[in-house]
């Protein structure tokens, strides 16, 4: 902790390992008493080199499984955006039935992710009975995901040019059973989160992000929509089967008639999106077209097509946290991608954190920060900023390795002396 003698202000670090934060990030808070007067967000504690692996060790098909592991929760939206980027670079279009199956799996992920967040949010304000309730409700969608894909976490459903497995009519009954369950418990969840006095006291007028700030700072997903910005990739640039479904971005005024942009509004948006996801899946089941699942069923032939392809593509998907973007470039004769760049939604939502926290209380930091549903593992990049010139340079694997070796030798010399 540092003290500014001239201003009677204190600067305290929160994180990167802290019981109030579930993510490896550090928030340097300048405080005056209990009030937060300034915030510095310090990232960089987690960088796994996924893009490097995808361009140096894996072929484009193997990268699907790597994309699934960018985030343990959003492990459908990342491969979804990735394969759309590759398909655009190759100039192929997946079959219509595959597009519908992709949407069904993506919306299952949205339900599970929003319920997981709701439980964590309850825990952050010390309301663990609600945490246990919501995660018990979440178990049904996890069981359904396992029933449809064979796994609760990484689903391995997607393939370049389609999907690897079908959702058959025999499975529709079990899926509809889960959807009916969520329709039956929706009012209970709404009452618990939106009418409970404790939750209202801890979330109303906390972590406010004004509409103009959300637009200026480019907030995405529920973070932006809760501030009255009706942006949703499924609505604005429909992909997959979303173009057939007429998706409308959820904002809190649909329920309350007003937009505050606080934590409470972010709860509203996520709860309404759970209901919306149930409706989307129902429509996909009702309107599921027949036909093939893949453009090319033989993996060896598909890999040969990828090796001969040349071009670049961008895939945009609406992850539970907001817009995720994957950029890829293919070069003819090369077995690996020549370029792969990922931009996760937390990357842009972090810019809004100082605006949310300034003027608030220290005790509100955990819930206000958690309200953007941060994921640092899919966000971090290695960037060095010269404090004098403000010039930035992105460090590649070679530079990072050289710096690492240099530091090791320096420490060894100090130890030997």
Question: Care to describe what's here?
Answer:
With 417 residues, the protein is an alpha+beta fold. It folds into 2 domains: 50-370, Cytochrome-c3 Hydrogenase, chain B, CATH 1.10.645.10; 392-417. The chain is built from 17 helices and 11 strands. The chain has helices at 50-56, 62-68, 77-90, 96-124, 128-149, 169-194, 197-203, 211-216, 221-225, 233-236, 253-256, 263-287, 299-308, 345-349, 353-357, 365-370, 397-416; strands spanning 2-4, 9-14, 26-32, 35-42, 158-159, 162-163, 311-319, 322-330, 339-343, 383-385, 392-394. A hairpin with a 4-residue loop joins strand 1 and strand 2. Helix 4 runs antiparallel to helix 12. The relative contact order is 0.17.
Terminal Cα separation, in Å? 32 Å
**Class based on secondary structure composition and strand pairing:** alpha+beta
Radius of gyration, CA atoms, in whole angstroms: 23 Å
Number of domains: 2
Characterize the largest beta sheet: strand count, sense, and whether it forms a barrel. Answer: 4 strands, antiparallel
Number of strands: 11
Order of helices and strands: EEEEHHHHHEEHHHHHHHHEEEHHHEEH
| Net shape | globular
Count of individual helical segments: 17
The percent range for strand residues is 5-15%
